[in-house]
Amino acid sequence: MARMSFWVGVSLLSFAAVGCVSQEKYNALKLDRDQYAERLASAERQAQASAAESDAYKRQLDAIMHGAGDKDSLVINLTSQIADLQRQNDELSRKYADAMNRPIGGVALPAPLDSALREFAAQNPDLVDFDSARGVVKFKSDVTFAAGSADVTPKAREAITRFSQILNSSVASTYELMVVGHTDNQRVVHEATIRAGHKDNWYLSAHRAIAVSEELQHDRVSSSRIEVAGFADQRPIASNATSSGQAQNRRVEVLILPTTVHAGVANTGGTAPGGPRRTARPAAFNKDSADVNTERKPAFNK
């Protein structure tokens, strides 16, 4: 009897063990089924999204194909704008060349204006040069701007205010002005300069010319008199092989042209005197300055 009880017990234990294994298999199969169902639902959603995206591309393609006439008109309009910009650029280059090719030895401007500009340059020798034969006032970039910046320094602003008074005088108020930025031939490489928007020499030369023109307008020089250009390193006046030559090439020129404009002294497009000026950005070291990771030395930029 005892032996029979032992075998019954073993049979029941075995049955129980078999029942437990079947439940585990069931649970595993159920988990696999749920996972496959989720994968199938995800695949269906992706297929629907792909179909919608395909339909959107098809609609865009159809719109392009049916709008060929509009596309042709757009191309014609852009071509015309490019041609117009090229004409403007050629005209600026011609004016600049004419001014800079005036014969050496003469005086380009009337005597009272020439005298006033000579005196202005003599009062600001570290900031300004005056080319009497060509009627060109040159602002030295190393003093006019901080390193890697197109923000005019306070000292340069004071000088530009005096310069504006001369330009608005009766003897000069009808002359056209061309503000031209120049750099040396060293590439812009410092990240801070690039982040400020001065991506290369073309940008930096143009931005500095714009900054000087804005200061002139702030001091009531009429915007109708002013043209602005940036020539990067394409118009050097000294050799870039030396540091002193590079410094001479970093400049913003104001050409007082022999042509006149119809507008008077009143400024219709500039900033009113005492109004907000350009917001100064933090000083940034550029390609012409001391490296930020080395001992800080005097920084000379363009």
Structure description:
- The chain has 302 residues and is α+β, with helices and mostly antiparallel strands.
- 53% of the residues lie in helices and 11% in strands.
- It contains eight helices and five strands.
- Strands 1-2-5-3-4 form a five-stranded mixed beta sheet.
- β1 and β2 form a beta hairpin.
- It is elongated, with a radius of gyration of 37 Å.
- It starts with a helix and ends in a 42-residue tail after the last strand.
**Largest β sheet strand count, sense and barrel closure:** 5 strands, mixed
Record the strand order, biggest sheet.
1-2-5-3-4
N/C terminus separation? 111 Å
- Total helices: the number is 8
Low-pLDDT stretches: 4-8, 10-18, 262-273, 279-302
Strand content: 5-15%
Overall, the morphology is elongated
Rg, Å, rounded: 37 Å
Order of helices and strands: HHHEEHHEHHEHE
Query: How many beta strands in the DSSP annotation?
Result: 5
Secondary structural class: alpha+beta
Mean of pLDDT: 79
Helix percent reads: 40-55%
Which tags fit this structure?
302 residues; alpha+beta; five-stranded mixed beta sheet; 53% helix; elongated
Question: How does the SSE layout of this entry go?
Answer:
Elements: H1 2-66, H2 68-100, H3 111-123, E1 128-131, E2 136-140, H4 141-144, H5 154-167, E3 175-182, H6 191-195, H7 201-218, E4 226-230, H8 243-249, E5 251-260
Parallel strand pairs: 3-4
Antiparallel strand pairs: 1-2, 2-5, 3-5
